[in-house]
């Protein structure tokens, strides 16, 4: 959870300066997608096809609109 707390604190600070809730909504959306994709990641790594490299988060979640 440190990553979520770090992201939330940064977004909260940005919201305080801009008077916009958009940064907070973006963090919630991003983390919802991360949590939702966790079972698929677990299934992939459990399948024995684990690759030692990594995939960029943008490739998994897509780009922001």
Automatic annotation (TrEMBL):
Pfam family, one: DUF6247
InterPro entries: DUF6247
Domain of life: Bacteria
Protein name (database record): DUF6247 family protein
Gene source species: Streptomyces sp. R33
């Amino acid at each position: 959870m440190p990553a979520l707390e770090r992201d939330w604190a940064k977004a909260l600070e940005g919201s305080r300066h801009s008077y916009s809730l958009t940064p907070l909504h973006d963090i919630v959306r991003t983390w919802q997608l991360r949590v939702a994709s966790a079972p698929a990641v677990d299934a992939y790594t459990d399948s024995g096809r684990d690759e030692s490299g990594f995939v960029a988060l943008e490739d998994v979640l897509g780009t922001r609109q």
